[in-house]
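Database export, one record per block. Field names are fixed; values are copied verbatim from the stored entry.
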Amino acid sequence: MNEKRETQQMPEAAHSHLPAAGQAVYAISVAAELAGLGIQTLRLYEQHGLISPVRSAGGTRRYSGADLARLARVSALAEQGINLAGIARILELEDANTALREINNALTAGRDHDPNRH
């Protein structure tokens, strides 16, 4: 138990060796364990387009931290009783909303830095 406490209390600098959120490094078995899901569930979610892991040259699925966050969102929605088609639509709308916010933020930043703006 002491090891677990020490791991949880590691300083931020010790986490610098962790992969970036978008870097696909986790095999399906590791991703399933980290997400608290079964391997077949991950495959099912992929079949329904809810998750799209990167494939290695040999065809092995590789999951990123961002994929794990998406799996957590899918799981939360599934626990609320939403079916896979509904989850797919919700994720699609959330992704579109995120993209629109990014565009809006870029436009706002450009407007705010426009020297010709009165």
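Remark 1: The CA atoms of residues 40 and 83 lie 17 Å apart.
Remark 2: The beta strands are 54-55, 61-62.
End of record.
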